[in-house]
Design a protein that fits this description.
Strand order of the largest sheet: 1-2-3-6-5-4
Number of helices: 5
Helix content: 25-40%
Shape: rod-shaped
Radius of gyration: 40 Å
Largest sheet: 6 strands, antiparallel, barrel
Length: 175
Amino acid sequence: MLFGMDLMRLALAAPLSCGLLFLAFAGQVSAGPADVLKCTEIAEASARLACFDRTAPSLRDAPKPPAPPAPPVAAVPPVPPEQRFGAERLEKKDQPAALREEPEAITAVLKEAREGEPNRWVFLLDNGQVWRQVVARGLKGVKPGSKVTVEKAVLGSYSMTIEGVPGLIKVSRVK
């Protein structure tokens, strides 16, 4: 009989506790995380479930925590591959700030060419690079507007070909 009494009390207590909880939360417009946590304190299972059912949906509309700050952006702008080409041979003060992988060859247009020393030319390209001939050799047919290709060669050296000029020209980057 004692067991039957407990069931009867429980049968009366469950609707009563649900009603009290409803009245307690009815005046609130939206529930927050603290209200959901209060549901854990309710001992009776159906009342606890009713509390969660009532408060948990409002969490979907709760403001989201702020996103973590974006990582800092590098202050140095990236250097185009053409400008990196051959720059490892420059003095540190003349090198582009951000040296990365460099291409195997570049093409440009010859803007100006002048003979610095006898049979040693200096070439100014349209991309701003300046290359100097390192192996003395007479060159014929060098003229501005010609297509120029500079390629990596053996042992860290560079070879230049100029449209209309026969053979390879060994060069070193000056600027």
